[in-house]
# Entry
Amino acid sequence: MKKTYSPPVIERNVIGMMNKHGHGTSSPVCDVIDGVRVADLLKEHGSPLFIYSERALREKYRAAHRAFSKRYASVQFAWSYKTNYLKAVCQVFHQEGAIAEVVSDFEYDKARNLGVPGHQIIYNGPYKTRASLERAVAEGAKIQIDNLDELLLLEDVARQAGKKPDVGIRVFADCGIQPVWSKFGFQYENYDAYRAIKRIHAGGKLNLTGLHMHVGTFILAPAAYGVAAAKLMVLAEVARNEFGFTVEYIDLGGGFASSNTLHNQYLPGEQSAPSFDAYAEALVDGIHSQLPAGRVPPKLYLETGRALVDDAGYLATTVRAVKRTATGQPAIVVDAGVNLLYTANWYKFNIRPAQPTMSAPTPTVIYGCLCMNIDVLRDQAALPSLGVGDAIVFHPVGAYNQTQSMQFITYRPRAVMIGMNGKVEVIREREDLRYVEEMERLPAHLQPEAPDAGNKLVKLRA
Ligand SMILES: *Cc1c(COP(=O)(O)O)cnc(C)c1O
# Structure
């Protein structure tokens, strides 16, 4: 039989999606998370929905801890609250052995409320209230001094409390990452950090036991941690030899990259993010490069945030309208806005439909549901053709979205956690009108029933 002729066609090869040229790096469909169907989750808990995997949280934590503990005897992780301070998320990390790292009085309260004792809280940040410093001193928290004004304030707090608290100072240095973050701490290169230590010694009110450096965030060059650790070790020797302080710990902050993909990155994040082993290798080498023979190595604190929690978080949304842009490109409106996905500014998330489909992926605009032109979740996502009611899943979104999401135009949705046993638990309720208006106060003369309020206005207009 004669074969029928079919004309050649040119199909756009969309990177990251399955096509005849091979597979992308991630499965193009996300219909099941930890054995639970996304469709069932949305039916039960509403759309949109934040979904966290307890398994992913624990596995990441253990992988990170293993990478360091197999190279270094004394390692302690401190969970960076600001990265995600849902109680359930914090508690998983605390159960795994992490202490808390907080950067405000609010976060300090949150950690204490979860039962974390003061001495297991690392207190960072460029502004700490006097009241919170008093509490931190009384409870033995690990305060990391950010600046000279705070140093003087803390000396006064210590004097009043009649205590000589152990403290750390935050240091910043050129570790090969540009731009160098100079907002936080005392500079290493210009001797500000040295002078801060000298001042602590001269003041006689505080005892320096720690040195802290958080190089930056999403650091793709592990070598930076080697440089940072080496510089802190040099400073520790100076503190010992010149001022008699024993630096018991160095804290290298957070900043390890998650598997997310930056907008300007070509390779998917799963391929370009350094491994925990690579970070650990560089960092531990940096410590040893400056450790004098016979000296007890300091304890190592790490405040890893996004690299531990990003992968564990998903946002499931539902298509509510299908459109075309002015140039004819397919577009969809989903029921979540950028107010829930702050990190859409930096990342190309994996965006996958939650139901299998045979249609070929096409670059599609994803509009959020806010009545604002800037509310675009992605200007080009490779998606099959979708209809109203279909669900799509954004991943990884576990870092910084929950904490930076704001109540704006819409209620913020529920968050659930899929437990180790597959049981789904609500870990944050969907907001409602009562929650949003709880802190508002309406003055008496503006009450709807006030005799001379609204009616007057109507009269004036008439
Ligand atoms: C934000 C922050 C962290 C966590 O940073 P990641 O980049 O999310 O790992 C750790 N330490 C300090 C002081 C921070 O400000």
